[in-house]
């Protein structure tokens, strides 16, 4: 049964798509059959995998709005073990057309129900907003992976986002957990990157992935060649970091099975908001283990 992971952050340009494509490819080459769902009308995941604009191609729109089985819109992503549900700009209309529909937040959840047995991971690349497309992604997911760019005010941003996610647990998806917070575009030459990383780790503890994605030009170049970075430059720091992340995701899944538990979620958002306002320091490594009950 696939673990369904949304890659989400309302903030734009933080590395959601780069993570979806490269984590997806890294899981696939680790022999974990993976489906990538492009849930963003910008269709950057679709183009990064080498599918240029094509009005004739069926997309997630047909599934969400016209009820086409998802198997009929998915394509082989040209990487063994990796399939793609493409997007295009028509998906903008879906966010509006869903509004009057019954069960409007649960269309994607229903669409993937019948194919979850065929994959080990289903990754959903979300748009940089909290619209009905993102709500569909989050309602369909077991967990959410939050990429965070190491920059000023990152701590405040992630706190707000986790508060929002916890609210969604009370409404559309009580089972939603946090897969992890991922530091992206990390530059170890800057004090700011180091400080932001240290602050996030001190507040969110084990919820922050140990793997860190460095700022790496190969990651920015690979999409223009239509291939994941592991096929563009396997020796690059960017490729190494996403392979590392895939290993961590797999090991975390094995641990969960071993313990018979899901990872405990954060209610630490409020703590971190307060701390971000007052200057962040200290906090220990257990910030991520605070229960989700803090209303
Ligand atoms: N680690 C990295 N090193 C260098 N460039 C990166 C890295 N991660 C992402 N980029 C580049 O930064 C830009 C934004 O990344 P990406 O598209 O993955 O973000 P996003 O969160 O999906 O954006 P959006 O919110 O618009 O969907 C892209 O041009 C991408 O190639
Ligand atoms: Mg994107």
Short description:
By secondary structure, this protein is of the alpha/beta class.
Report on the architecture of this protein.
This protein has 295 residues and is of the alpha/beta class. It has one domain: P-loop containing nucleotide triphosphate hydrolases (Rossmann fold, 3-Layer(aba) Sandwich), CATH 3.40.50. The chain is 43% helix and 16% strand. The protein contains 13 helices and 8 strands. It has helices at 16-29, 44-48, 60-66, 70-73, 91-97, 107-113, 132-139, 154-171, 191-204, 217-221, 229-232, 237-259, 269-278; strands spanning 3-7, 34-38, 75-79, 82-85, 121-125, 143-149, 177-186, 208-214. It has an 8-stranded mixed beta sheet, sandwiched between helices. Helix 1 (16-29) crosses helix 12 and helix 8 (154-171) runs antiparallel to helix 13 (269-278). The chain is globular and about 50 Å long. Bound molecules: adenosine-5'-triphosphate (ATP) and magnesium ion. Magnesium ion binds at residues 16-17, 40, 42, 44, 125. The site of adenosine-5'-triphosphate has 20 residues, from helix 1, strand 7 and helix 10.
């Amino acid at each position: 049964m696939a673990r369904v992971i949304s890659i989400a952050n309302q903030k734009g340009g933080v590395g959601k798509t780069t993570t979806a494509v490269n984590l997806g490819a890294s899981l696939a080459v680790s022999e974990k059959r993976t489906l990538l769902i492009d849930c963003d009308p910008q269709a950057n995941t679709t183009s990064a995998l080498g599918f240029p604009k094509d009005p004739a191609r069926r997309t997630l729109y047909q599934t969400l709005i016209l009820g086409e089985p998802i198997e009929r819109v998915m394509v082989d992503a040209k990487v063994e073990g990796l399939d793609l549900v493409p997007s295009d700009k028509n998906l903008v209309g879906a966010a509006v057309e869903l509004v009057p529909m019954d069960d409007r937040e649960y269309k994607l959840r229903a669409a993937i129900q019948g194919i979850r047995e065929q994959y080990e991971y289903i990754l959903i690349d979300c748009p940089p907003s909290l619209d009905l497309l993102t709500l569909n992604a989050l309602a369909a997911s077991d967990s959410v992976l939050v990429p965070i760019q190491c920059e000023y005010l990152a701590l405040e941003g992630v706190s707000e986002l986790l508060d929002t996610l916890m609210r969604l647990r009370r409404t559309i998806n009580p089972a939603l957990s946090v897969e992890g917070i991922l530091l992206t575009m990390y530059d170890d030459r800057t004090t700011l990157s180091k400080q932001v990383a240290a602050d996030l780790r001190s507040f969110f503890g084990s919820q922050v992935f140990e793997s860190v994605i460095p700022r790496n030009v190969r990651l920015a170049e690979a999409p223009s060649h239509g291939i994941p970075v592991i096929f563009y430059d396997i020796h690059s720091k960017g490729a190494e970091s996403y392979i590392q992340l895939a290993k961590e995701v797999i090991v975390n899944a094995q641990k969960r099975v071993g313990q018979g538990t899901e990872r405990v979620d954060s209610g630490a958002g409020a703590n971190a908001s307060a701390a971000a306002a007052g200057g962040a320091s200290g906090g220990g490594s257990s910030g991520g283990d605070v229960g989700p009950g803090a209303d």
